[in-house]
Design brief:
Elements: H1 2-34, H2 48-56, H3 61-71, E1 75-80, E2 83-88, H4 91-99, E3 105-107, H5 111-116, H6 119-122, H7 126-140, H8 142-145, H9 149-163, E4 169-171, H10 172-189, H11 194-211, H12 222-250, H13 259-265, H14 276-289, H15 292-306, H16 308-323, H17 333-337, H18 340-352, E5 358-363, E6 367-369, E7 372-374, E8 379-383, H19 385-388, H20 428-443, E9 446-450, E10 457-459, E11 463-465, E12 470-475
Parallel strand pairs: 2-8
Antiparallel strand pairs: 1-2, 3-5, 4-12, 5-8, 6-7, 9-12, 10-11
Length: 478
Amino acid sequence: MNYIYSSLIVLISLAIPILVKLLSHRKRLEKEKLLPPGTSGWPFIGQTLEFLAAGWNGHPEKFIFNHIKKYGSLIFRSHLAGSPTIVFCGPDANKFLFSNENKLVQSWWPDTINKIFPSSTQTSSHDETINLMKMLHSFLKPDALQGYIGFMDIIAQRHFVTHWDSKDQVTVFPLMKSYTFALACRLFINVEDHDHVAKLAGPFENVLRGIVSVPINVWGTNLNIAIKASKLIRKEILTIINQRKIDLAQGTTSFTQDFLSHMLLTSDENGSFMKETDIADKIMALLIGGDTASSACSSIVKFLAQLPDIYEGVYKEQMEISKSKGPDELLTWDDVNKMKYSWSVACEAMRLAPPIQGTFREVMTDFVYEGFSITKGWKIYWSVNSTHKSTEYFLDPEKFDVSRFIGQVPQPYTFLPFGGGPRMCPGKEYARLQILVFMHNLVKRFKWEMVIPNEKLIVNPMFKPEKGLPIRLYPHSK
């Protein structure tokens, strides 16, 4: 009897953990059934390489549409940038995310960005991010930017005199990066000296390559190179910050000189100021964000070379503005607001080749969307291309059709080159100005043709010409 009793105790003690494990497994399976369909891909890297490869091949939308077709759902599960991720597609999903910013979801950055900009996780808070966005919106609102149009025109003219005039051939993309970076340096940190700008520009290229990369920090990887480059840039910006604080104390510079002064002199609601290291990282991020216009400008140059009728429309509009001004008269706010056709062309270029492919969010609390359970802590990626390249929202979406933006606007939440909701890019108006000032100075000087007629646009990490877009120039003066 004692033997039987002892055996039962042993069997029960063995069975209990098995039953617990089975119940746990069952609950996990039931929970997974409520998740959107999808896969986690390979261990650790997930589907990141597949996602990036679609962009490297010039068709980032294929990753999105292949999964939509495979699972029959505009919401699917993946594993991107080192985290389990749910991909949201379509205007309804976009509206839901943007409407629930800071309620159900909040901004999230992949581990690569956290390593490149350490203050984003070590010292930044949610409230600080909101405060920074308020400062940016204040500094970059249209009324505030009106006073900068003249210097934008001056920098654009200098750029063309230095890099384009008297040239038979140029390579567009690196020149666009030089142009947009010079503008950003002037606007954000008041650096105009060519050598100083060049000193910052080199490391920034390495930082950009590491932002969207496999999150492996070992010698020689893009992430490792980017982290080293960010340290060099941070050191340089901290030097600028220290000198600026001295200048502000002595009254030799002003509050409105640039965004750096604005940040140093603006406190939060509690009267606290940002730490210098935080400011350096934020300025670095802003300089990178200002670089997105280089992608848009390069795409515009490519499309105008391929579409002579569209070029003629832009040329006619810009020459009417040019002829209304004196020889040395700079562009004004009124001039830019007359460039309606040119901006429609820019919008169609950004629909086909959006500088930003999408962004990540983090789930703040459990919620249900379209019958799927979205759990706290999961990451969400919303895709620009899920609407920009969709036949449901844009007829013949691969065709360049400027009429989509003339006298009409796309359906809500379908055209989102600058994002949407509270996290919409605060530099939207700044980007519009620098793109249009560039187009004005370009077309009134040149016509051009592509050296590589079929050169494609690829994503790495923004849309860019695969070979840099070499073009032959034909000055109007000749």
